Amino acid sequence: MKVNTLKEKIARKQPVYGLFVSIPHPVIIEMIGHAEYDFVIIDLEHAPTSMESVEELVRAAELVGLTPLVRISKVERAEILKVLDCGAQGIVIPHVEQLEQVEEAIRYAYYHPVGMRSLNSGRPGVFGKYPLTEYIGEANEQLMVVPMIESVEGVRQSAQILSHPQVSFVLEGAADLSQSLGVPWQTEHPDVRHALDELHATAQQCEVPYATVTRGVGDMSIWVERGVHIYVLGDDRNTAFRAYAQKRNDYRNAGGQI
For 163, how many CA atoms within 13 A lie in the half-sphere containing its CB? Predict the structure, then answer.
């Protein structure tokens, strides 16, 4: 069983950096790893990624020392089982508004005695090379379950949601939260900021690490002061697009072209 280095780094309160991955190609994962990120969140909610691609992306993450998490599309037994059997070391649950959603995901994701994940000797268990009774315990130790809070109701219920001992950290979703508050895409709106502050305060009270989706380097000092050390720096598509556009603009401007 591979050690979950992200889990270890978070326990040490070491700053960690990740990206959502929506382009289902292993080369993207390799580039992110060589750029010295700590983890990726392979996206099944907003991206047309097949389960076969998930396994290849996970394999690429292992190659370059990234912890592979998967944002599932829904809390559903078969999907959770398959992404974990592909080798994902954790799941991110979108749109969590009730503790029951987390409880259900944990039941599908963890082996006995925590949950009732279906037994299998696939690639995470090295195809049965070692005793599966040992693998079960190790798998439970390495797994991460991460609820995403991205609605008014989610923030309202966050104390209950974060009370579950198997919650590894909480990830904010300011974009959908802004829509829930009636100000879509206005992630800097005072109402959105207030809701995120409330979620962060709840996470601190529950002693659950808080992860922010950063939207500019200007916010970094604020989150560092608040003790946040888990940063999701957007996704691969936007990161690549902005880099491409910036490079073109730099050369165009250097040539005096409009």
Answer: 8
* 254 vs 250: CA distance, rounded Å: 6
Q: Give this prediction's pTM.
A: 0.97
Among candidate residues 53, 49, 50, 87, the one with its CA nearest the CA of residue 67: 87
Please give the Cα distance from 255 to 56 (Å, whole number): 42
pLDDT tens digit string along 185-225? Answer: 999 999 999 999 999 999 999 999 999 999 888 889 899 99
